[in-house]
Each structure stands twice: as structure tokens, then as C-alpha cells.
Amino acid sequence: MPVAATASDVWTERRRRVGELRARQGFARQLLDFYGALLAVQERAFDDAAANRPAAEDLASYVTDIVVPSVLDVSLALGPERMRSELIHRIETEHPRAIVLRWIDGGEQPAVDRFLARAALGPVLEALGADARRVCAGPRDELHCPDCGGLPQLSYFDPGPEDLATGPRRLLCSRCSATWGFARMTCPGCGEDRSAKLSIFSEHGTTSGEQGSVVRGLQRGVPPMDHGAIFPHVRIEACESCRHYLLSIDVASDPKAVPVVDELAAIPLDLYARDRGFTKITPNLMGF
Amino acid sequence: MPTATRREFLKIGVAGASALAAAGLGFDDAVAESTKIQQQLRIAGAKELHSVCPYCAVGCSLVAYTRQNSDGKVELLQIEGDPDSPVNEGRLCPKGATAMQLAVSPRRVESPQYRAPGATGWKSVSWDFVLDKIAQNIKASRDATFVATDGNGNTVNRTEGIAFAGGAAFSSEEGYFATKLMRSLGLVHLEQQARV
């Protein structure tokens, strides 16, 4: 059985993956460089929240006072030009606490507001756990996070418990990064479960059959055949009924993958899905 | 899959990237670079379908990953255990894990094989030939070994010269049909390999 990751492992793993993908996926370097810098701020916010344990009713004030200034600092120093100018405009016109509160309440927000609130609140909710997450608004059904009611950001497949077992599918929350199990062949946007309505878009050469094996995962332990796939472990899971999609990360086929980071870096797949008229269930931290 | 000319494809790509850039936070370099990558990707739509392993009576659930090629033919690309099934929870035995070979193995025998009496090797024959041959052999054996009454004069109507063994890949319906057919011929020696 895998050993559960500790809190500091989570941030170390995210940083490691940023470095790996930065070297491998040069097209996402601008985004990954910024995310790498933001991770340092988020890790500090996580550690502080774990130590200070702010009360759930003080969450918005705590995040606004303690975390938002650091997120603003790194964003204004290293973020892209549009992010910088829109952040400056927003903090001149609206109190950051209102922006954070709207994210907690699940209201509609411009992209830059979502980014600020999410980047600041996310690590605090991760640190505080289920009790603090209950203050967030949103349905607690299978299509939403059981802890905070947030929408799923991505899905991922864990490695199975043994070689010939397929691991279960899990969804990761866009607001608090909690995960929950979800049926593999069901749309996380609307619950559609008819196979004919669920399309999967993946690169050629990424299935076991195309890699010369009839057994999924059998090639594990031997050098993988190079089919030139850029995203051998990421696929688009789209629904013809609700026209939504999300990206799915197969950690079984790339054990070094960190779903949160790999999803951010897979911008070409987002472009592909949107060209075909699909909308992501909810944009990720960087707005894609 | 929708089709588009190269010109339309480029137009769609640029429009999609522009929309994404306009709605985003200003990662325009990343979007521009990703657009180039997107146009190089060889992506195809696929479906995942539920299935059941044919090999034994446990009935493990499978997920079959299929893709429709440009010629309309559906290609089976991957089979794995269904993690949502309460029967096998994503697990497969070594035989079930290779179920894809039933469909795609290059060594699969695609026509009946016949070795004539006295012959030293097998030869490929037609299904018509084989069905006729089996029918003739069954009739000859049944006629030669049919027992209408036993030593005490009881009517038994049994065929003692033929035995039947069902394969592990039989469905319930196939097993039912095979039993009915064989009993109607008077067979008493019926066996079924119901496990791996």
C-alpha cells in the first residue's frame, strides 16, 4: 500500500513537477515559472494556517490579511502584464475581502478575481481540512466536493493496488483540493453515463494496444516505446450532453505526475477541447 | 469526428486561442506556444464501453477502449478491469487481463482446422465443410452406439458413444442451448469447464 503523503511532501512534489514539466513542456514555461513562484507563497500560507488554525467564521478576514498581500506581491512582480494591470485595477476598486468572500460564496467573478481569491484561499483550506471547508457555499452532491461544495477541477486515476488492477477514478476540488471517488464512465459535469455521449480525446500511441501490449501496464518496468506523444498520460474527457470537459491525468501510466500541476501545463489540450466547442467544467487557477 | 479543411482548422485554432487569451490572465506567450503544439497533436476521439470478461463464471467487469478510424472501422485499443465494478474492483486475473487477445492477436486462428484420418498435419477448411463433417460424425457415432433399452428392458434412449464438453467462454444462454441440444441427441456425458 502506498504511504500517505505528508503536508510538506505535497508542496515538494508540486515544485518537483513544475521543474520536470518546465524542462519537458517548453510551451508552458511562462505559466510554470509563475506558478513555481506562487507555490512558495502558497506553501507558506499553508504552514501558517496549519499553525494558526483560524476559526471558520474568520476565514475570509484571515486570508485577506495574511495571504492576499503575499499573493499580490508575487503576482505584481512576476505575473503577466494583463494580470498585473487587472489586479491593480481590482484592488483599487474593490476590497480584497469582498473578492475572497464571493469565491467562498460561489458567486460569478471575473478571471482575475477568481485567481486572487483562489490562490490565497486554496492553501488555507487545504491546511485546515473539512471543518473550515464547510463554510463554503455549494451543493454537496456527487458532482461537487463533499467538503466545500466546489466544482471538480480535474480527474485522475490512481495506480491500482496491484499490477493487473485498474485504480479508481478520483475528482479533485477546484476550491479546496479535496478529492472524492467518482464513477469512471460518468460525466462529472452533468452525471451523463451513456457511453455514446462521452468522448475521450487522447493522443495516438497512448493506449496499451498501440504500445504493443494487450495488458495495460505490462510495459511497466521496461523502457516505454516512444510514440512521440506529448501528453501520454493526459486525456480530455468530454460530454456531448452538457458540452463540458475536464482533463484526466493517469498517474498509473506516469507515476511522477502531480495532477494539479500536469493539468495546468496541458494548455494545448484545453485549446483542442475548446476548438471543438467544449467548455471546461471550471477554469483552473491560471484561467485555462 | 468533425472534419475541417486545413484553412478552417487554422482559423478555428487561432479563434480558439484568441478566445482563450482574451478570457485569461495574460499568459499570451504560453497560449501562442501551445497553439503551435496543438496543431501538431495527433488526437482522436475514442469511447469507453462496459463489457464482461468471457472466460469464467466470475463475470469480471471490463472497460474496453475503442476508437473509430477514418475508414469507419472500430479499433479495440485497450481492455482493463472496471474499477467501479463490485465484482472485481478493477482487478483482472492474468487470463482476463489478456482478453484483448481474443480480438486482436495476430496468432488467432481465423478458420476451422481439419486433420483427416491418417493425415500428419492440419489444414484450413471452410465452415460449411466442418459443420457437415461434424454432423456426419455425430450421426455415425450416434447410430453405432445408441442404446434404446438397458439390460432390464427399461427404455433409456441414450447415446453412449459421444461426450460433450462446454468451454469456459460459454455464456449462460449458450450453456443452456448446448445442454438442450445434447440431451435431445441422447447424450449422458456432459461436462462444462466453468472456471479458468
- Overall 3D geometry of chain A? globular
Global geometry of chain B = elongated
- Biggest beta sheet summary of chain A: 7 strands, mixed
**How many domains make up the coordinates of chain A?**
2
What average pLDDT do the residues of chain A reach? 92
| The CATH class of the largest domain in chain A | Alpha Beta
Alpha plus pi helix count of chain A: 9
What Rg of chain A do the Cα atoms give?
Answer: 19 Å
What's the helical proportion of residues of chain B?
25-40%
Oligomeric state as shown: heterodimer
Q: Helix-strand pattern of chain B, N to C?
A: HHEEEHEEHEEHE
Q: What is the domain tally of chain B? A: 3
Structural class of chain A: alpha/beta
Q: Biggest interface, and residues per chain?
A: A-B, 61 and 58 residues
Give the strand tally of chain A: 7
Task: State the CATH superfamily name of the largest domain in chain A.
Answer: FdhE-like domain
Helical residues, percent of chain A: 40-55%
- Major sheet summary line of chain B: 3 strands, antiparallel
* CATH fold name of the largest domain in chain A: FdhE-like fold
With strands numbered from the N-terminus, the spatial order across the biggest sheet of chain B is 1-2-3
Mean pLDDT of chain B: 87
